[in-house]
Amino acid sequence: MNMVLAIDLSSNNLSSTIPSQLGSCIALENLNLSRNIFEGPLPASIGNLRYLKELDVSFNQLTGEIPDSLQASSTLKQLNFSYNCFSGDITNNDAFSSLTVKSFLGNNRLCGSIEGMRKCHRKLTHNLLVAILLSLLIIPIFCVAGYPLLLRSKFRRKSTVFNMKGIEDEKEAIRKEIKYPRISHRQLLEATGGFSPSTLIGSGRFGHVYKGVLQDNTRIAVKVLHFKADGEISGSFKRECQILKRTRHRNLIRIITICSTPDFKAIVLPLMPNGSLEDHLYPSHGPQCGLDLVQLVSICSDVAEGMAYLHHYSPIKVVHCDLKPSNILLDDDMTALVTDFGISRLVKVADENFSVNDSAAYSFGSTDGLVCGSVGYIAPEYGMGKQASPQGDVYSLGVLLLEIAAGRRPTDILFKEGPTLHEWVKRHYPNRLEPIVEGAIERCAPCATGQLDSTKIWRDVILELIELGLICTQYNPLTRPTMLDVAYEINRLKQYLSSPSNLLIE
């Protein structure tokens, strides 16, 4: 659950110890374990959660000292340790500086400098003088006889500690190896035939993508990034790694590992056996059967779901900035996965009550000088110097919907018949859409894996795709729907195709 933001298990009579694995919930902001019967120590790993703001473990049977990691946290604002069996000295420093005794009620063995808490008193023995005299006698004897023994013991202890540290480092390395396996530059060379042109499957602004097979028969795609003197490539590499590492969704490409040296940087991804959506929309080997309408709507639904996650639910909000058919890959089951986050913007919410239509709620990375996307899919406001926003991704997805319905690349329209695909389709809407609809049916019908009840169903769905595409590509970004709205509408079309009798399109 490393993407969960809040956990509330209060008032459940849960017992045993609090699992230290909670420290792996790296995005956790709120944790409430109050009013249970947890016992034992409070795991120090919880204090290492870098985004944790609120912690409530009151009304349990927790023992031991409160971990120092909690006090050292820079994000914790609200804490409640009341009515447990904690012990030890509490200082009013760092995260505890704003706390009062109310946060520690019912812990009779706690003392410290928190306002309202009893002070800690150190007891002095009445034989202090005798202890001083004995120490004066023991020190000379120790210097003569005991020091060599202590020195030997010290070196032995250092050696033991060093060995234990080495074992722990090795264990940690093994754990990391399991999660993100190490693949060397040499292994990538062997897997791709020395990055042979015959293994090249794609090229872009920042690098080339090669296919390959590792020694364990794992099929991979290797994105090798170009180097430039201005450091632009470094920012793209770091940004894409950060997004792939911290986002988890069934419709987003997952990362296998990275390979990074001073003069070579590559991202290793799983190879998608069915290629990209572009390969199916525009096959390069002459006329052949493409995707049917059911598959196309399902792919659009997958893309919208993945993008809605990035905009609304991901721990780091992301604007993709380059959504197009070549960046949509298809796995064994024809499930769509969004890929290529090289020019994406990492979005940081400035206000908890932000509106997705408020561009001021977002701040962006160091690539704002780059063109936000590919020709034909770029939102018009980007050409006026506006910052990247979720509405830009909605525009790109709208272009994709119109492209599927019209069967034409947006660049074909751009250079031949009009300013944008949106304008070209809009000129035909609503009374002159018949040629577009008939063309879509002709392209999709021969490839249908299952026969639908009537041509009317196909017609209904294609018309809905066109209308949704026009809404998403409106000139004013404030009038476009959110990606959540788009995902909901496409999912309705998907349900309609699977069970037309149970769902009527309004």
TrEMBL record:
Known EC number: 2.7.11.1
SMART domains tied to this protein: S_TKc
Matches recorded under Gene3D superfamilies: Phosphorylase Kinase, domain 1, Ribonuclease Inhibitor, Transferase(Phosphotransferase) domain 1
Membrane topology type: Single-pass membrane protein
Domain Protein kinase, chain residue ranges per copy: 195-497
Record: residues binding ATP: K223
Locations listed in the record: Cell membrane
Similarity comment: family membership: Belongs to the RLP family.
Protein source organism: Olea europaea subsp. europaea
Enzyme class: transferase
TM regions (residue ranges): 128-150
One family name in Pfam for this protein: Pkinase
GO molecular function: ATP binding; protein serine/threonine kinase activity
Presence of the UniProt keyword Hydrolase in the record: no
Reaction catalysis annotation: L-seryl-[protein] + ATP = O-phospho-L-seryl-[protein] + ADP + H(+); L-threonyl-[protein] + ATP = O-phospho-L-threonyl-[protein] + ADP + H(+)
One GO cellular component, as annotated: plasma membrane
Phylogenetic classification of the source organism: Eukaryota, Viridiplantae, Streptophyta, Embryophyta, Tracheophyta
The name this protein goes by in its record: non-specific serine/threonine protein kinase
Keyword Glycoprotein: yes
InterPro entries: Kinase-like_dom_sf, Leu-rich_rpt, LRR_dom_sf, Plant_receptor-like_S/T_kinase, Prot_kinase_dom, Protein_kinase_ATP_BS, Ser/Thr_kinase_AS
Keyword terms of this UniProt record: ATP-binding, Cell membrane, Glycoprotein, Kinase, Leucine-rich repeat, Membrane, Nucleotide-binding, Phosphoprotein, Receptor, Repeat, Serine/threonine-protein kinase, Signal, Transferase, Transmembrane, Transmembrane helix
